[in-house]
Amino acid sequence: MPSILIVDDNEQVCGVLREAFERAGYLVTTAPDGNQGTLSYRENPTDLVILDILMPEKEGLETLIELRRDFPSIKVIAISGGSERAHVNLLDLAKRLGALHTVKKPFEMKTLVNLADSVLTESSN
Predict the structure, then answer these.
(1) What is the pTM of this model?
(2) What's the rounded Cα separation, in Å, for the pair 107 and 94?
(3) Of the candidates 82, 88, 118, 86, which has an alpha carbon nearest to the alpha carbon of residue 100?
(4) Is the peptide bond before 72 cis (omega within 30 degrees of 0)?
(5) Which of these, 13, 4, 6, 71, lies nearest to 36 by C-alpha position?
(6) How high is the pLDDT of residue 82?
(7) What is the 3-state secondary structure (H, E, C) of 67-121?
(8) Selection from 89, 80, 90 nearest residue 13 by Cα
(9) In the 8-state DSSP scheme, what is residue 48?
């Protein structure tokens, strides 16, 4: 069973993502911020990380930099629901910092699950 870590400060978003990915056959762990997400990944690495960019404590870009530095082969999909102008720049920056894909909130859950499936299928080939 593939595993996924969802790092998002919005409890509702984490809950909805958890439910969708569990229905799709994933083992899901969640974290409310970058500090907890980094700690969780260090203790129990997952096959994929879904990482929100705008969070308190340690935000997503800082978390992405740290995780990519310490785990170069980590697979990350960055998500963000920030303002339109900042959102585009932050997601673009996340891609340049090592996120495999970026997704703007709000998104169709099926789209994100299919993207995760694709990332994990590509890496297993």
Answers:
(1) 0.93
(2) 17
(3) 118
(4) no
(5) 6
(6) 67
(7) HHHHCCCCCEEEEECCCHHHHHHHHHHHHHCCCCEEEECCCCHHHHHHHHHHHHH
(8) 80
(9) E
**Is 81 within 8 Å of 106 (Cβ atoms)?**
yes
Name the pLDDT band for 98 (thresholds 50, 70, 90): very high
Nearest to 67 by CA among 109, 96, 39: 39
pLDDT at position 43 over 60: yes
Looking at domain 3-119, its CATH superfamily turns out to be Response regulator (3.40.50.2300)
Query: Which residues make Cβ contacts (< 8 Å) with residue 105, sequence separation at least 6?
Result: 13, 79, 80, 81
At residue 24, the pLDDT reads 97
User: Six-digit token pair at 65?
Assistant: 């930099």
Domains of the chain, residue spans: 3-119
User: How many Å apart are CA 93 and CA 110, to the nearest integer?
Assistant: 25
